[in-house]
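Table 4 source record.
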Amino acid sequence: MEKKPISLLALLRDAGILKAGGIADVGISGIASDSRQVAPGGLFVAVPGLTVDGHDFLEAAVEKGCAALVVERGRGRSFPGKKIPCVEVQDSRVTLGALAASFYGRPAERLVMIGVTGTNGKTTSTYLLESVLKKAGANPGVIGTVNYRYEQVALPAPFTTPDPVFLQKMLADMSAAGVTHVLMEVSSHALEQKRLESILFDVALFTNLTRDHLDFHGSMEQYYLSKRELFFRHLKPKGKAVILCEKDIVSGLDWGERLRVELGERKKMAGEGEQAQILACGLESGGVSVLAAEQSLAGIVARLRTPVGEVRLRSHMVGRFNLKNLLGAFGVGLALSLPVERIVEGLESAPAAPGRLEKANGPEGVGVFVDYAHTPDALENVLQTLRELTAGRLVVVFGCGGDRDRGKRPLMGKVAGLLADVVVLTSDNPRSEEPALILAEIEKGVEESGLPRMRVEALLREQGRKGYDLIISRREAIRTVLAHAVAGDVVVVCGKGHETYQITRKGKIFFDDRVEAVLQSAVVNW
């Protein structure tokens, strides 16, 4: 949807930027925070970044024809021979979001906004809820890790939660296309970097909090406080919070319960009615919980306790953690006041989220799964689930991303060593790091588990053997494991899930775990 130029002064007033007196008025045809994206007549907002500062590119923006600048206080400058309005603000990140929302007509206010945050389960939850909303007769749009989609549109997702300008434009496009509800995966980075300014949610879902992104946040406490912002700053006064509660196995902390208590206290102080607006969910307790459940590789059959009575549910999804995802999605359906029958129909017919314990064609008799698990908790959930459902050996192939939290590497190695029979360490997205050094850090954790190291071919040759191996090439690792696995074994390839690329020092190349699994299985079966 193209926008006609809008008055700079009108834009500043609508965005609530009060100190705009004395600024010359010009027409604004677009907004950008990247000088490379500035077009003639555009407004350039200089934002300090993690590696570069937009204030260092003011001249570049002017040379590309920007009509006005927004900078942080004390960082404005003039350009000889050019009269370009320069607005100084306290926080240009906050201002960028407010300006983008105003420029595109505040589209979030015309949509039912549903935010999903947590370390794991965000993508699966949005797929479940997309199915539920369609069964209820709504027209949902989704902004998440796999892609951004609505109607017949599907765009690649470079970020889980996009930058404010792209986000507001997409919301405006969705609204114009007749979308009624938007499901948005909300990352902690987006909350910390204020990408959601001027957006308020009708319902917010908290899935869990486990170790991840500590290279960015520094501590679990700061990570939690970033996630909490969705509920404390971006939930409407009468908005509903759905919170999954369960103790973290590693730390013993129940971050969901803490959020429930803190949000309840805040709502009481604001007079917003805690009980009606917070729905806790959990396997054993909560407003939505499990009375009984049977699990197999074919799926889940469960009886749920809910505020509207007992509900029976059958799903093709596999695993205890997916049962939790179903609980959260059911809770969001209730928070949206959807008919229970439509919620159940939507959950039961929801397609599998790409790369989330996704079944792949394997050698005859061998179960093969691809999963996005790239944190200690996610890997533990996947392996515990498959451990209980595996008749033969459980084999895991995984690595860790480069230029990311190094502290989780040995933790993931130890989890794999304790729960799998055969562990094969391989490259994930090494980025600028040396793959062998990443594997060495993971290996320390595997060694703690007591698994011996030997060639994977030898490990898989005899049923009773347990151990681990290192194969740097991800393609070779997958093909070697599938070439030697036998009927009854279950093989899970973790870390990349839906991704169709691998990032190395040489750049991004095509790589899809699912394709590799299918190709090698075809060779074995032939």
